[in-house]
Specification:
Radius of gyration of chain A: 18 Å
Number of helices of chain A: 10
Helix content of chain A: 40-55%
Structural class of chain A: alpha+beta
Number of strands of chain A: 10
Largest sheet of chain A: 4 strands, antiparallel
Largest interface: A-B, 48 and 47 residues
Strand content of chain A: 15-25%
Oligomer: homodimer
Chain lengths: 248, 248
DNA sequence: CGAACTTTTGACAAGCATCAACACGTGTGG
DNA sequence: CCACACGTGTTGATGCTTGTCAAAAGTTCG
């Protein structure tokens, strides 16, 4: 079984950011049972209230997690890309407490949760790595609470752009200062707790002061240090991913 | 060793909300090595940047986790009480990404992380329960992102009050509709991304419309259904804790 | 009984939302 | 190939929610 070619290889790579794994552990990850499924942009991987039977790994494309509040407004909770295990937590919890939706066309691998539980006795290190993965996820969520709670619009957007840049680079999809933004301005708004109109104005402001460039979604971060300062971006909270791109 | 009298009993009780544990597992939790320490209000249990060597369990009193952003504003990320394992995640991560501070005088039990890691082979169910505990924590954080990101001031405060009520009841510290609020209005503001002045006005509005009563910090939720509706409070995200108080 | 918090009040300012319209690019079908 | 719809981005006018500043009143505790 040629490990490097397994669709789960990027997932394994991500786990290894957190923990050293033995050859047997690596093999156990790559041979997890999984069903690969292509989905169109906008498709739901899970919905709030769904019973949690599977967790899934992103193979290509982008997804986000989000909640819808009473008045119908949407709040994006996180953005995920190649190699991310989305809803690893569903391994342990009974029911999904949020939605997971494809931002672009994606390929995902569904893994039955039981298969992961079965690794506990035989490959505890793998389970430990997955636990860490969920903890890093939680750390990112804490940063997002601070982002939407206590930063102004400019900082929120700048922070989000920096984070996405680092995650893209850690996933080896792009350089952190030059990438195709996988979000529309409306989705940036939903991620930052703003309106799309105001996000648009913030983008213009950031362009105006020379922090970012590029046209449309092709984003170029001309002045990383500047943008990071505007966004109060200190990447410690990304743990392994920050180190992976030399920001630790 | 009389389990019921161990200071870790409330922690065990919380873990058992998530998983059925054997007698041996229960015993293993209660006999975890720990150092009990009383702390004054305002004391830090951990600081951002600290190396993570211990995790701690709250025995009495209240603590919060928070971050400080560039301009000096503070964002409270969660509120914890008796039986909560705060920073269980530090078992796995290298460095604390936020502060943990006592809101009132507290007693905490520090547990060396290594002792928890050592349970992996011998008591996997205990480790699994702790994992679930961290996942429920993450679920609550997601709800907070939506709360500060997409709800107006009234709803944010109402939501927070409902959540604290349910957690207090689940911890058997009070009824969910009648309790001593462990936060000052300024701390409520830091938890909801508002200013204390505005929080004060929201409290008056909620009192005015008959949703809440009581004077000072002694809060009485006169109309739970009303407050829950104002706050868009649907407690699924609390998982086991919601069920424990009959809200599932 | 005074010092340090905490809550409350008022006047005013600002950031962001809202609404509405328009521009632009892209893909689709006639 | 053009017409058209649709999603996305852009702009302007206006107003509300919430922040800011400052001061007073109430509370707690040594």
């Amino acid at each position: 079984m040629p490990g490097e070619l397994s669709p789960l290889a990027p997932f394994l790579r991500k786990l290894e950011l957190h923990m050293r794994l033995s050859a047997a552990d690596r093999e156990a990850v790559l041979s997890l049972p999984h069903a690969v499924k292509p989905l169109r942009a906008g498709a739901f991987l899970f919905r709030e209230g769904d019973p949690a039977r599977n967790c899934c790994v992103i193979l290509s494309g982008f997804v986000c997690r989000h909640k819808v509040v009473a008045e119908g407004a949407r709040q994006i909770l996180s953005v995920h890309m190649k190699g991310d295990g989305v809803d690893l937590q569903s391994v342990m919890l009974d029911v999904a407490d949020h939605n997971v939706q494809a931002l672009t066309a994606v390929e995902v691998a569904y893994i039955p949760t039981q298969a992961i539980l079965d690794l506990m006795p035989t490959h505890p290190a793998v389970v430990q790595a997955m636990w860490i993965e969920t903890l890093v996820d939680a750390s990112i969520q804490r940063e997002w609470i601070a982002n939407v709670g206590r930063r102004d619009a400019r900082a929120r957007v700048a922070h989000l752009l920096c984070e996405i840049g680092v995650k893209l680079e850690a996933a080896e999809l792009a350089r952190r200062d030059c990438f195709e933004l996988p979000l529309t301005q409306e989705q940036v708004a939903d991620a930052t707790g703003l309106t799309s109109v105001h996000v648009n104005r913030v983008f213009q402001a950031l362009r105006g002061e020379g922090a970012i460039g590029g046209r449309k979604r092709s984003l170029v971060i001309d002045d990383w240090a500047r943008l990071a300062e505007v966004g109060d971006f200190r990447p410690t909270y990304l743990h392994g991913q920050a180190e992976a791109v030399g920001l630790a």
